[in-house]
Amino acid sequence: MTTGVQQAAAGVDVPEVIGIDTVAERARTQGTRTRRYLNAAGAGLVSDGVMDAVVEHLRREQEFGAYEAANLVAPRLEQAYSDAAELLGCDADEIAFHDAATTGLRVVFDALRLGPGDTVIAPRSSYVSQALRLLTLRQLDDVSLVVIENRPDGSIDLAALESALAEAPGAVISAVHVPTSSGLVEPIAEIGQLAQRYGAKYILDATQSVGQIDIDVRAVGCDVLVATGRKFLRGPRGTAFSYVRRGFLAELKPWAPDVRGSTWSDGEVWTTAPTARALETWECAVACRLGLAVALREALDRGMAATEAHISSLAAGLRAAVAEIPGVTVTDPPAASAGIVTFVVDGLASREVSAQLRARAIDTIAIPASHAQWDLGERGLDAVVRASVHVYNDEADLRSLIEAVAEIAHAAQEKQQ
Ligand SMILES: Cc1ncc(COP(=O)(O)O)c(C=O)c1O
């Protein structure tokens, strides 16, 4: 080990974990046994309970047929609405399930029926799929799109947002809580206050925050919040859900009414459910939905306050330690406090850094600018390495990562000389 590596490893200050039994979390998470898994922001490791629920249901479908199997678990599926509502602080009829956060955002934006004269306001932290959706609205549907600059701390400039709202009252705000490209936490409650003051519609992408940050949608004041299942909630892939404020449903006209949310009563007549389910599709992977139901229950039982404290303190320790490594630059902005830490290594492509970490059984991911052009592209970063932590991560995981990054950075420096 080199001096730089030792120094960096010594710099890891992992705060004492309060409220989370990391040993127990690891014991019920098979994925922690063989690797140092630091990619919750890609897809969190599922617990054994989530896995069992999925597999059991696939066997149920094999034995009874898919429709009959779904009937057998109907109360459990129904309970998932209440559990998602409990997590977000809303009512069960304000929850809709989807197969991806992108789907949730798409059906909501489609149902807003935006056109010439409408304005959408978005932050630099927007995720690629949503940014491209908004650019499509601008290019094909004549919708005005305003991208708000950041403050020096990297978060959305609220004064600039207010000016944009004053120019276009009634606009749609397409906000983000935590982006894909850093540990930034946007000021979502302040955005909510501005939305209310200017009569704006407030759609919040909480894909990277639900499951790691305690969120109360009524306190945030958003009209819609969209979340995914597989990241910090630790549900299976192919699951997502949204909150749609009851009073906001009247603003939404589903672009492609589905048998799930609409009843075709006669000839050219149909009615749409007076609940968020109006935005769902009938078809879904019931096994995965059941896995998500278990993940939701586990998140609630663990407690969001304790989870948030654990994740943010682990990430803060990691961020500080990575910043100490010679030849490594943390690329998180000052306003970063979420469980995501991003960095670059001098002289080595981020994809290569991530590959070298993977070869050491440490999982991170390289995020290219093409996933966040308004953020990474704007900052002149073509890619960053992203490490993201969860309740199953412990001090040993962080130390392994720090030591490995220090080694990789040191080797890259030697090669350059
Ligand atoms: C901030 C953010 N929003 C939206 C998405 C899209 O989520 P999904 O892949 O579930 O559609 C992602 C995915 O990484 C994301 O990071």
Attribute tags:
417 residues; alpha/beta; Aspartate Aminotransferase, domain 1; Aspartate Aminotransferase, domain 2; 2 domains; seven-stranded mixed β-sheet; four-stranded antiparallel β-sheet; 16 helices; 15 strands; globular; disordered N terminus; binds pyridoxal-5'-phosphate
Radius of gyration, whole Å:
22 Å
**Major sheet attributes:** 7 strands, mixed
CATH superfamily of the largest domain: Type I PLP-dependent aspartate aminotransferase-like (Major domain)
Q: Which hetero compounds are present in the coordinates?
A: pyridoxal-5'-phosphate
Mean pLDDT metric: 95
Number of beta strands? 15
Q: What distance separates the N and C termini?
A: 19 Å
Q: Reading side by side through the largest sheet, how are the strands ordered?
A: 2-8-7-6-5-3-4
Total count of helical runs of at least 4 residues = 16
Mind explaining what this structure looks like?
With 417 residues, the chain is α/β, with parallel strands linked by helices. The protein folds into 2 domains: 3-46 and 303-416, Aspartate Aminotransferase, domain 1; 50-301, Type I PLP-dependent aspartate aminotransferase-like (Major domain) (Aspartate Aminotransferase, domain 2), CATH 3.40.640. The protein has 16 helices and 15 strands. The chain has helices at residues 3-10, 22-27, 40-43, 48-64, 66-72, 74-88, 101-112, 128-141, 158-167, 188-197, 217-220, 286-302, 304-323, 350-359, 373-377, 395-416, and strands at 36-37, 95-98, 119-123, 144-148, 172-176, 201-205, 224-228, 240-244, 262-266, 269-272, 328-330, 340-345, 362-363, 365-368, 383-388. Helix 1 (3-10) packs antiparallel against helix 16 and helix 6 (74-88) packs across helix 12. The protein is globular, with a radius of gyration of 22 Å. The two termini are 19 Å apart. It binds pyridoxal-5'-phosphate. Pyridoxal-5'-phosphate is lined by residues 100-102, 127, 129, 176, 179-180, 205, 207-208, 228, 240. The site of pyridoxal-5'-phosphate has 13 residues, from helix 7.
